[in-house]
Fold this protein.
Amino acid sequence: MNRTDVLRYIAALRNGDPMIISPGLANYTIAEAKDEPLTIYNMELPYTTPMALGIALGWPERRVIAIEGDGSLLSGLGVLSTVARYQPKNLLIFVFDNGAYLTTGSGKAPTATLFGTDIEQLGRAAGMKNTRTVHDLDTAKDVVNAAFAQPGPWLVVAKVDKQDRPAERGAHSLPMYVYEAGLVFHRAALQERSKK
Amino acid sequence: MSKPREVKSSQRSVASTGKAGVRYRQEALEAFYDGFKAAGIDFAVFLPDSMLDGVEQLMIERGGIDIYECSREDEGIAMAMGAFLVGKHPVALMEGSGIGLSALILARGIVQKTPILLVAGHNSTLGERYDYHGATRMVTEPVLRALDVPFHVLFDPADIRRVIAEAHATVVGQRIPVGILLPSHVIREIGEGR
C-alpha cells in the first residue's frame, strides 16, 4: 500500500479539520491536496499527537487529526496513555508505518516496527479501544471512513511501503513557514469559534 | 495569617517521594487558584510533583479550569500549546526537572509563536536538601536562559496573584513562553517534611 494514496483519501475527507503533521514526506502530500489554515506542518518528532490532543481537548466540537510516522510516534509513546486516559472522541491518530526512517538520510535505517514492535497493540495496551492496522488500500479506506464517522479516539496504523520517497525535493516547498504557522492557525481557530 | 491546612497529596506523589503529610500554605494555594482564574487561565496540564501537588489538587477540587495530567512534562507543554492554538489560555505545572525535558517543545513554541505560561518548582538556590535533586537543579534555569525564556523567581507568597497576572499578560502580549519559578518556602511550610 502506498502512503500517498491513503493520505489523499484522508485529505479528501478532512473538510478543514485541524491537523498536526509529523516531520516527513506526508506534509507535502497533504499540502498538495489542499493547504488548510488549521494545519501545523513538520511538528517536532515526539509532539504531533500531544499537540493534536491538546487541540482536541480544547475544542471538543471539532474533529482533530494527527498524522504520525512510526518513527515519530515511537519517540513519544507515553502520549497514548494520556489519550486513553481522557478518551477525546474527536481525536484521530493515523500512523504511517513503513518500518523505516524514510525521510532521513538514505531512508534505509529501520524503525523498531521492522523487528516486531506493533504500534496498534501499544495503543491497546495503553487503553485505547478503537484501533486498527490496515495493509491494503480498500481496507484502509473503510477504516478511515469509520474513524471519520464514529466517536474516537482512533488509532489507525497503515502499513505502507517505501516507494514514495522522491529522489529530490526542493527547499521551502510547503505553503507555510513554521514561523507563521502558529499565528495562522490561532487566528483561523478564533475566527471559526467566534462565529458559533 | 491563617493556619495552614493540610492538603492531601495524590497517592502517586506520596508513593514516589515517601513524604506523606506535607503541609502547604493554604493561602498560597488559594492565591494560585485565584490568580489563575483572575488571569483567565482555563486549561492546565501537570505532571504531579511534591512542590505543586497542593495547587493541582486544589484546582481539581475547585473546578473551573480544565486540568489534565500528562505522562511527561514536554508532552504536557505540547498539549497546552495545542489548547492555546484553539483559543484556550493554558498553564503547565511541573517540577523544575520538567523544564529540562522540554527544551525542544519550548523552542518550537517560540519559533511558531505558540506560547505557554510555565509554573515550576525552583531549587537552584534555596532549601534544596537532597543530593538526588542535583540534576534537576542544573537544568531548570539554564534551559530557560538558553532559550531566552523570561522567568521570575517568586519569593514572596504575597506576590502570587500579581505575578501570575503579569506573566500571563506577557505570554499573551508577546506570544512567548514565560516561567514562574517557586522556591519551596513560598508554598510549603518551612520545617515540615520535604
Remarks:
- Chain A has a mean pLDDT of 93.
- Chain A has eight helices and six strands.
- The CA atoms of residues 80 and 171 of chain A lie 33 Å apart.
- Chain A touches chain B through 36 residues (CB under 8 Å).
